[in-house]
Amino acid sequence: MDKETIQKYAPTILVIIALFFQYNVFVTPQQLEVKHREILEEISMKYATKEQNSAMKEQLSDMQKKVDKIYEVIINERANYEFN
């Protein structure tokens, strides 16, 4: 390339490079790591893990069993009361 070609396209190249930096087209690995941690924190605050979900299902299942036992006791008590 000759000097005139470089001088002709230099302003355009500088504008393009400035836009790349302004809109963060190129980022450093440190910036990616920080953003990754932010995303993981946000996700952990909004969503439950599979382990938490399965533990909650187990607790609900136990509660349902206890409620069923209570209903059985109530029904048996009513049945005994009606026969007497």
Explained architecture:
This protein has helices at 3-22, 29-46, 50-83. It is rod-shaped. The chain starts with a helix and ends with a helix. By secondary structure, the chain is mainly alpha-helical.
Give the helix tally: 3
Q: Any idea what the shape is?
A: rod-shaped
Instruction: Quote the average pLDDT.
Output: 91
**Main beta-sheet strand count, sense and barrel state:** none
Question: SSE string, helix = H, strand = E?
Answer: HHH
Low-confidence stretches: none
Number of strands: 0
Portion in strands: under 5%
Helix percentage? over 70%
Q: State Rg.
A: 34 Å
End-to-end separation in angstroms reads 109 Å
The count of domains is 2
Broad structural category? mainly alpha
In terms of topology, how is this protein built?
Elements: H1 3-22, H2 29-46, H3 50-83
Which key terms come to mind for this protein?
3 helices; rod-shaped; 84 residues
Summarize the structure.
With 84 residues, the chain is mostly helical. The protein has three helices and no strands.
